[in-house]
Design goal:
mainly alpha; Cytochrome C Oxidase, Chain A
Length: 426
């Protein structure tokens, strides 16, 4: 993710940091904005899925939220886990993209507390439906509003305003979250807003991947420069990206207003084709076959396959649309967040990210989970769902095992803030 080399030399952590408690701003947890948010996202990933699996297979109770357990599950995946990951990425990536300083720890901690308040309030909304729901909605919107207030000036001051799409994506997330809570408070089924939020997240992945992939693929092209083969640099071409964004947005709008309509079906197929067309930029030969480019490539494959399955299901009606939806959530959102957390978690902590075998193992587990969860609609549902849940939990427990210690200790290179190290190949 990062292209800048650290300016500090290796050295011991300050004494204040070594003796600080995790809730104190001097603690290394607050050294960079991604640290607390990625830590929360990692824990939410396996924790909420373990609770969901316990409900499905062991009869464990879930928080009695309006809309029932399925709403809780999707909400916690998208508004809990994914929103924490989006906040961590935006607060770390946007200063890098705009060449501006890292955000201060104090406002980041306020956003983290709003995320935690939103979780608690939503889980209690079965006992105090109106008060707790209103509090959860306000906390989530305050988090998103605070996030926009932090990043908007930097995005707007950029001379070419090349990265304003991040601001529009965060604003769209806020609209869908507000719609969810308005419907929930009115007693109307709010799931349609969560499906719309999934579409917004797909668009955001396309926007973010164009930045991340440029760094990763070109680093791998440079790493093979000595083999005598002339290679052009990788370019994330705007026409292809804009077409993918347009079809995803149109499908999301059509699905919101006419969920089972044929227009939604054809737009889903168009989105699948547009995402596959994006991959033509990625076909750079041997550099694509190295671990980081290949894992990022797989994200787009899952997104394209998800939209294709949704389109076919809407046209033919022979299997559930949810097969495609789970390819988007598990293979699109889940795998993308996992990879970005690994890239940023290491490079912005002063560590070289390559050579760690657990990373592709976890990515493969998430890929298998996506296939199994989608396949649950075609064969032994209970077995496939239990295996998929176990693989998802295993992948994010693996990530937590390796990255949480990194997030709570001082940088390995003695640098401060979010300074990155040079992205290398492999």
């Amino acid at each position: 993710m990062s292209r800048a080399a650290p300016t500090s030399t290796r050295g011991p952590a300050p004494a204040a940091a070594r003796g600080a408690a995790p809730w104190q701003l001097a603690h290394p947890l607050w050294l960079c904005a991604f640290r607390p948010f990625f830590a929360l996202a990692a824990i939410a990933a396996w924790g909420s899925m373990a609770a969901w699996a316990g409900f499905l297979f062991l009869g464990w109770p879930l928080p009695a939220v309006p809309g029932g357990p399925f709403v809780w599950h999707v909400h916690e995946l998208l508004v809990g886990f994914a929103l924490a990951a989006v906040a961590g990425f935006a607060l770390t990536g946007i200063p890098e993209f705009t060449d501006t300083p890292s955000f201060a720890a104090r406002p980041v901690r306020v956003l983290v507390l709003l995320w935690l308040l939103a979780r608690i309030a939503f889980w209690l909304s079965g006992w105090w439906p109106h008060a707790a729901l209103a509090l959860a909605g306000l906390a989530n919107l305050a988090l998103l509003g605070g996030l926009m207030a932090l990043v908007a000036p930097r995005l707007w001051r950029d001379p070419e305003r090349r990265h304003l799409s991040f601001l529009w994506a965060i604003a769209a997330i806020a609209v869908t979250v507000a719609g969810f809570y308005v419907d929930a408070l009115r007693g109307v089924a709010p799931m349609r807003w969560l499906h719309a939020l999934l579409g917004v997240l797909m668009a955001l992945i396309v926007v973010a991947m164009s930045r991340v992939s440029t760094s990763i693929l070109n680093a791998n092209i440079d790493a093979l420069a000595g083999d005598g083969i002339e290679r052009d640099p990788y370019l994330a071409r705007p026409p292809r990206r804009n077409m993918a964004l347009l079809t995803i947005v149109l499908h999301t709008l059509a699905q919101f207003w006419q969920p089972a309509g044929r227009v939604s079906a054809w737009l889903a197929l168009a989105a699948a084709c547009a995402v596959l067309n994006l991959l033509n930029d990625w076909h750079v030969g041997r550099p694509l076959l190295r671990r980081w480019p290949l894992m990022l490539y797989a994200v787009y494959v899952f997104i394209a396959a998800g939209y294709a399955l949704i389109g076919v299901a809407l046209l033919g009606g022979e299997f559930s649309v949810n097969a495609g939806v789970h390819l988007l959530t598990v293979g699109g959102v889940g795998l993308n967040v996992y990879i970005v957390m690994c890239i940023a978690g290491y490079t912005h902590s002063g560590l070289e990210k390559d050579g760690r075998t657990w990373i592709p193992v976890g990515a493969a587990m998430l890929g298998a989970a996506a296939v199994l969860r989608a396949g649950a609609y075609a064969y032994d549902a209970r077995l496939a769902m239990s295996l998929a849940a176990g693989l998802w939990i295993g992948a994010y427990v693996l990530l937590s095992r390796h990255l949480l210690p990194v997030f709570v200790r001082a940088r390995a290179d003695g640098a401060e803030g979010c300074a990155g190290i040079m992205v290398s190949g492999r």
